[in-house]
Structures are given as structure tokens and as C-alpha cells.
Design brief:
The chain is an alpha+beta fold. The protein folds into three domains: 287 residues, Cytidine Deaminase, domain 2; 46 residues; 46 residues, no CATH class. A hairpin with a 2-residue loop joins β1 and β2. α3 packs across α5 and α11 packs across α13.
Length: 384
């Protein structure tokens, strides 16, 4: 019953907190003091603003799509087990919830905060959990008492062995990881500020349209507001303006190129992309002269460096807490780290003939059944 209640709470909107000691609870939308920046000097940046940055949106979309193409399987040594445990098929099941929901939540929490937290479900007949109950950011704490610690989730205490906690970028001795909002506060705030300024600029609000110079030095604020309202009404109606004697109208011109607005936005985007580990070519920030083969190589480099930074901690934590000893959780990278079709066909045939691959292992290259594998490969060879 407690898990069911927790699951229901996890589906409700999370209340974002504003000031939380980093040793007790992950920070949400607020820069922590250990980041090296004086918090009073940085603008307040929310999670929604960070997620709204084009670089962040592109990174999450590309990375999520890659993860969803990598099946999560159980292995003993290097051999896939015949039937994957239920927890590997859909770790956080529920009404109309899929594996894609779990991956999206995991990646977003890890990216923003450096932590993913869930409560382990009840043990099955083999002594291992079949589900995880996700805990949204802001609804969990780590409380320390000397050398011991426990989790406080929605007011209920849990021991570490009851909680599935994946953390990344944690400092030595810290229990809480760090995400982009605490690793790069100044850079993220700069990107948010640049996008906010650009939106105001192109909406016409960044620079006033003009200035009215009135000859009366004793002009009151009420008279100035009245004159400004009349000028605004004339401008919106696109009519001729009639000014009092001696009044001058000066149009204030603005130039985005002289203001280096686009250059600033591009530089900020490139720096943020470099910081979070995604090649600019995948986001359209680099030269368009890259060939298809170059892009393929960039994609594979992105997977083997940045994407693995998110996959490996999840694999290791699931292996440690959710699977029997000797069974390992592992994403199948071959689903995305593979050559083009002609090369895959040639590799599959040679691997089968040389005994390197079994039919069960090789069929993952083509998503085919073991019985149909040889026939379909041969048909593709004939077509090529």
C-alpha cells in the first residue's frame, strides 16, 4: 500500500523548492554554494528555462532517441540470458507507462540534477524486485547521522538498500550527484539571458522605438505619460504625428549585427554544447561541409563518450540492486553502433561463417528471427 501511495504521489506535479543545503537535498532551479559562483550575482534560472534552450532540447532529443534504440538485456558473462527479468523490460510500469517514459525521466533528471531516485518494489519469488517506483526531483532527501545516512521520501524514511539511486558527477565524499544546473551555472545563466534578450529584441521590446524631446523643462510625469500614450496610439494606428511646438521626435535605430546578438548566442550555444558533451555538428553549430561519413563518425564518438556517461551508471546500479549475482544489465550498443547496410551484411556473413557470431547474436543487426536470418541476409546480398 505504501508503494502504491508513493507511486500516486510521483505522478502529481512537483513543488519546486528554492533554497536547500546540498548535503541534504538536491537543488532544484537554484545554484548551490559549492559551485564556485556567488548566488546573488546570478539570475534565477528555472528548470523550464534550461529545458527550453535549443542546445539542451537538441541534446535531450538526440540522446533519448539513441537510448530508446538500445535494448536493455541481462547477460551472464558475455552471453545474453534467454529471458530478461521483468525489471529490464519496463523498470517503472504503470497505467499507460512504457520503457520510453522511464528513459526520458531518467535522462532528464540525470542531465539537470545528476541524480535519479526510485524506491525498489517488493521482491519476487527469487528475491529480486520487478519494478522501480520513481521519485520526482524535489521529493527526496538524504539525511546523515554520523557515518550513517537514510533517505526521506515524502516524509517516510527509507534505508539505502531500499532506494535505487543513480548519481553522476558527485564530489569525493558526497552522496548527491551534480547535473548541468550545478556544474555550469554561469554558462547556463548566460545562455538563458541571451535567449531572453533575443526574444525581447525581435519582439521590439529590447530597444525603445524612439525618444520624444520636449522643450518644457518643467514637464510633469503625468504630462509625459499622457504624451507618450498619444505617441504610442499614433504609432500603432500608423497615422501622422502632430507634435507641440518645439517638440522633437528621434527614432532610435537598432542593429542586431552591430549589437553582436547572433554572434553572442552562437558562441554561448557552442560553449554549452561543448560543456555537456555533444558535438556541434549534431546540432547544426559546425560547418555544414561535413560528409555523411564524417557525421557517422561524430555520432559514434558522441555515443562512446557522452552517452556512455549516462548508460554505465544505470547498468551498474541495476546490476547491483536488481539482478541475481552473476547477471549483468547492459544496453545493446550494437543497435546503433553499427555500419551501413552493405557493411553489416558482409560482417554478419563473415562472422557467421567464422563462428564468431551465433544466429541469435547476429540477427540483432537486422531485427530478424534466427530461422529467417540466413535467407534474409542472402536476399539482401543479392539485391546489393
Amino acid at each position: 500500500m505504501a508503494l502504491l501511495e508513493l507511486l500516486q504521489r510521483a505522478r502529481t506535479p512537483t513543488v519546486r523548492k528554492t533554497a536547500i543545503p546540498h548535503q541534504n537535498l538536491q537543488s532544484l532551479g537554484v545554484w548551490q554554494h559549492w559551485s564556485g559562483y556567488e548566488t546573488s550575482l546570478l539570475p534565477y534560472v528555472t528548470e523550464d528555462q534550461v529545458l527550453g534552450l535549443p542546445v539542451v532540447g537538441g541534446f535531450l532529443n538526440i540522446t533519448t532517441s539513441l537510448l530508446l534504440q538500445m535494448p536493455l538485456h541481462g547477460y551472464r558473462q558475455a552471453t545474453p540470458i534467454p529471458n530478461d527479468p521483468a525489471i529490464l523490460q519496463n523498470p517503472t510500469p504503470g497505467p499507460q507507462r512504457t520503457f520510453a517514459d522511464f528513459i526520458s525521466e531518467y535522462l532528464r533528471d540525470m542531465f539537470l540534477f545528476g541524480n535519479y531516485v526510485a524506491v525498489l518494489g517488493p521482491k519476487n519469488s527469487y528475491g529480486w524486485p520487478d519494478i522501480l517506483v520513481p521519485v520526482p526531483a524535489g521529493q527526496w532527501q538524504i539525511l546523515t547521522d554520523g557515518g550513517d545516512y537514510h533517505y526521506l521520501i515524502n516524509g517516510q524514511s527509507y534505508q539505502p538498500e531500499q532506494v535505487f539511486h543513480v548519481a553522476m558527477n558527485a564530489l569525493n565524499g558526497d552522496l548527491v550527484g551534480r547535473g548541468v544546473m550545478t556544474l555550469y551555472p554561469g554558462l547556463v545563466a548566460s545562455n538563458v539571458a541571451a535567449e531572453r534578450w533575443a526574444a525581447a529584441y525581435f519582439e521590439g521590446g529590447a530597444v525603445p522605438p524612439g525618444a520624444v524631446k520636449h522643450p518644457n523643462p518643467e514637464l510633469t510625469q503625468a504630462q509625459a505619460d499622457s504624451l507618450k500614450a498619444k505617441m504610442k496610439a499614433v504609432a500603432m494606428a500608423r497615422e501622422w504625428a502632430i507634435l507641440p511646438g518645439g517638440t522633437e521626435l528621434e527614432v532610435l535605430a537598432s542593429d542586431a549585427e552591430k549589437a553582436q546578438l547572433n554572434e553572442t548566442r552562437k558562441l554561448n550555444a557552442q560553449q554549452l554544447a561543448m560543456a555537456i558533451g555533444i558535438p556541434g555538428a549534431l546540432l547544426g553549430l559546425d560547418s555544414p561541409s561535413l560528409t555523411y561519413r564524417n557525421i557517422t563518425d561524430v555520432f559514434q564518438q558522441f555515443i562512446t563518450t557522452t552517452v556512455m556517461h549516462y548508460l554505465v551508471p544505470l547498468e551498474q546500479q541495476m546490476t547491483l540492486q536488481c539482478l541475481p549475482r552473476g547477471t549483468h544489465a547492459r544496453f545493446f550498443l550494437g543497435a546503433v553502433l553499427r555500419p551501413d547496410l552493405p557493411q553489416r551484411v558482409d560482417l554478419a556473413i563473415k562472422s557467421l561463417q567464422g563462428g564468431l557470431f551465433t544466429q541469435q547474436e547476429a540477427r540483432a543487426f537486422f531485427n530478424l528471427g534466427a530461422v529467417e536470418f540466413i535467407e534474409n541476409v542472402q536476399e539482401e546480398v543479392d539485391v546489393l
